[in-house]
Structure of D-alanine--D-alanine ligase:
Amino acid sequence: MSDLGHVLVLAGGLSYEREVSLRSGRRVSEVLRAAGVSVETRDTDASLVPSVLADRPSAVFVTLHGGAGEDGAIRSVLDLLSVPYVGAGSDACRIAFDKPTAKTMVRSVGLRTPESVTLPKETFHDLGASAVLGRIVERLGLPLFVKPSRGGSALGASIVRTAEDLPSAMVGCFAYGDTALIECYIEGVEVAVSVVDRGEGPVALPPVEIVPDDGVYDYAARYTAGRTEFFAPARLSPEVAAACAAMAVTAHTALGLRDISRTDLIVDAEGRPHFLEVNVAPGMTETSLLPMAAEAAGEDLGSLCRILLEQAAARGSA
């Protein structure tokens, strides 16, 4: 058995991504047990803090997606409890979870990212939706990609190919958040690059290429087996693959992330990667991208998760 003692996997929560989080938590718990780690899996409810105080884990693996799982809130609580955890600290999570802020940060270090506009729902109420939407189309052109400024799993996200489709896309977006990120949609190869740091600096795992069966990598395509074809490693030239890896590592570093992250990119027709967003708590389900990348790299997922927990535990005892 591992000398970690008992570790806690947090899964579930109350975000729209609860079911995905539960699946990620089950997967991480399974691979850790197979790697000889004593694991307790818990949801985030009123019993969590008393339980942690009564039986303090050596480290926590957070598999909460969306909301408190990625915006830094649960990590702030763990900091208050002096319990170490895998992944970025609360301040870095707050920055990375807000997509417009993350885009601004990575652009400041020279990374390419689609031009965009960020607008809260109130703007449309105050100024009139038709006038604002018309100007967005004039400024950014078509097609566009609309998504909530915070959140994941493509919930509330959609491609807009005509001006007439933009109002309904905004309504769908606002169902999942009060602020919309509208960006130029770039046709190309969708790629996810996971980054891990085993204590010697962040390193990119092989990029994973995403080919959804209907061309849109939405919630169903992400979590329904058979709806999307994946290539790990991605079918990219060595030069383009290296550029994608460098972009992911640069984003990880610029945003102050730690241990693990996943950067989503689009590679255009000229072979140039564009930063889309970063995930501080990557999915760990059977159809998730980081486990695929780890397998492509010849990594055992349980061993990798154990190493990350050992690093977190060492930080806590330092």
Summary: The longest helix spans residues 18-34. The mean pLDDT is 92. The chain has twelve helices and 13 strands.
